[in-house]
Amino acid sequence: MPAHADALPASAQLNKGSKRRKRILAFCVVAFLTWALPTFVAQWSKLNQKTAELQALQQQTEQLKQTNEQTKRDVARLNDKEYVEQKIRTELHWYKPGETVFPAKKPNP
């Protein structure tokens, strides 16, 4: 053993080693937090961004489902001759021969 180690009492040597271990532990904790905090903040912001994207996509999915259901209803109605005739009259402005048409003007808003 070194000569200076014999000069200190045993309890002083233990306290010195204990203080050194506490400093090393504190340094390790600070180093870990220095790395972990920015990483956590970056991941938190990405999580918030992805959550917003998910909500937008879910809303878009709901709108597409409603459009799909409306299209399915329209396709089912195309088998009805009266509905097809009505669509032709309103959208294409076709009329039966000899039929008198009275066009209605739409009011200006």
TrEMBL record:
The keyword Coiled coil applies. It comes from the Bacteria. Pfam families: DivIC. Residues 47-81 form a coiled coil. The chain crosses the membrane at residues 24-44. InterPro entries: DivIC, FtsL/DivIC. The keyword Amino-acid biosynthesis does not apply. Keywords: Coiled coil, Membrane, Transmembrane, Transmembrane helix. PANTHER family: CELL DIVISION PROTEIN DIVIC. This is Septum formation initiator family protein. The lineage of its organism: Bacteria, Bacillati, Bacillota, Bacilli, Bacillales.
